Amino acid sequence: MKQLQDHTGICAAPRARRSGLVASHVALALAMAQTNAVAAPADKTLETVTITAQRIREQIETEQALTPGGVTVVDGETLQERSVTNITDLLRYVPGVWSQSGWGSDELFFSSRGSNLDSTDYDKNGVKLFQDGLPITTADGNNHNRVVDPLSARYSVIARGANALTYGASTLGGAFDFISPTARSTDPLSLYVTGGSDGLLSGRITAGGVADALDGLITVEGKSYDGYREHSKQEREGAYANAGWQMSDSVSTRVYATYIDNDEELPRGLTLDQIAEDPDQAAVSAITGENRKIVKTARGAFKTTWQIDAASSLQFGFSYEKQSLYHPIVDVRGPDPDGAGPLLGPQFFSLLIDTDHRTLGGMVRYDLKVGAHDLLFGINYADTEVKGGNYGNLFGRRNGLMERTEEYSDGYEAFAMDRWRIADAITLVYGAQFVDTNRDVRTTNAATGDVVNPKGDYSEVNPRVGVIYSLSDSNELFASVSRLFEAPTTFELQNDVCQCNRLLDPMKGTVVEVGTRGATAQSASTRWHWDLAVYYAKIEDEILSVDELVPGTNIPTGTSLSKNIDDTVHAGIEALVGASFSFGGDTHRLEPLLSLTINDFSFDSDPDYGDNTLPAAPKYAARGELIYRHRSGIFAGPTFDFIGKRYVDFKNTTTVDSYQLLGLRGGFAGKGWEVFGELRNLTDKEYIATFSVLNQTSGNDAIYLPGAPRSAYVGARLSF
Known about the structure:
5 helices; 22-stranded antiparallel barrel; Maltoporin, Chain A; mainly beta
């Protein structure tokens, strides 16, 4: 299937004039492609897979071209030729998204258009996650316990900011949709293995088949990783399966099942002096408290598509997910009474979270094409329940119940949109979302029986209007004005700063966006593709939290203080530019790729912070590569990262320096097999990957997570 993909992995060519059904929702487009795929005899399997993959790609390009804003599509096939072990690797070339892993495992930070720039970065809120069009983000907006395995996605759609309206999302960061491969869109049998520095060994095997109206696919994977820091091991096993039934020429159903068992150690933050002394060490409290995160997840889902007629279709689905979280997180001790030796100092504060989570999710989509109008109506629903307790932490074991916790959240998002082709070259895109959501958090003190029970109901209508002007079949301009809305999560429900038992207000804002995307003809010897978006968002009541330090220490407690900020600004430039130059009669190709993000996130005349810059996100991030490809299948070239400085605290007293990284990757692709190798951080540059956000730093805060040193990885894939 290599001939069907861009080598960059980014689908960027618009199809604004393409006739036919506008998917309006990438997951729906994929389901329609699967519905229309015709099962072939065994000796025609590859042909069927190729045709289906082509349909999928065309539907995705159509959807992307009819969105008046920044949307990036990552082809999962291209991830197979470099080392990809977490979502940060998948998001590497997505402009507008900043993502880093603190120690190389699945525990990572991501922010889209300035979402989540505070101490609750572990929530990963501000972005709504979907899997095959069904929401996996909890009902209150949290993504803190699970993100999707990047290699389990055939395509990933990153709709930034208000461009996620087709998913019903209105969050500051937008929506990420991870679309699973099926037996009709991938090889019937494949084996993938990768390994390298710091004890990394990861492997997966995928098997599937098509039998007339039925098809099925299952992937089993495992990962073992020692980590580049002390106390940062990870062990993960997972299984991902789906099966489809073509019930009739117009109706199909697909069921999905996922199981993940993930156990990873947490080395925690260090001071800058500790990093200078030994960046590979773990925080002492992380070891004495056996800080780790054990998450077991089981999920089942189904999705049915009914192609009613040539102009209309209906899609509906349901998901059920259960999680268990065992999370020793804090162990703060005083000085060892006998100095360095076998004894430990007295424990001042500790925390171990042990909870069970359950989330129900559902969605309905109806598409209707009437004349020059492409209409979409949809509803998302989610209901989440969390029960468990906060315990004392004694060497990673529960040591007495401190609080019983119960959290309930539910809500729905109803949305409608019309893509109205008012002229041959002009499409007006307008619509609105209505959100209604509830929060109910009950915390019972185990010793006294005292109950704290904040509750909140939030609702809002969020309109959007945009226009797309088609310059040609493959080039367009776009502009839009949209309303943003985000209710507080259960972690950020109350104003912790004022200590006044007052609920936080939801975040609201207006964003203006303009841009262009396009591509030159595929047949040309020199080909270009580009995607550029410029946006400006004025935010009211942005919810921000700062990490609370244990009194008298430089160690974060793992809890946060939240409050509303009256006015903030989120603005930026997002650019993705790629090219392919052929020479030597198309025997050789040179393929540069650059993803550039420029951020301007700041307070706006705030009484406490003035016009300070918001922390955590860099001023700029440029990531790219220059890959040489030979017709025989050989490819090689350098990679680079240029990352700007970041503020550590709201007071802007401390910055993390900018840094530059250089890498190299290459490989060889033959018929049915591929091998690759990758070197990262060739100069062994020392840098800060991420950190905990504070209100004001003291100069000796244990909040910094050092980046990965020089490392090497190799991998191979066999397909049958």
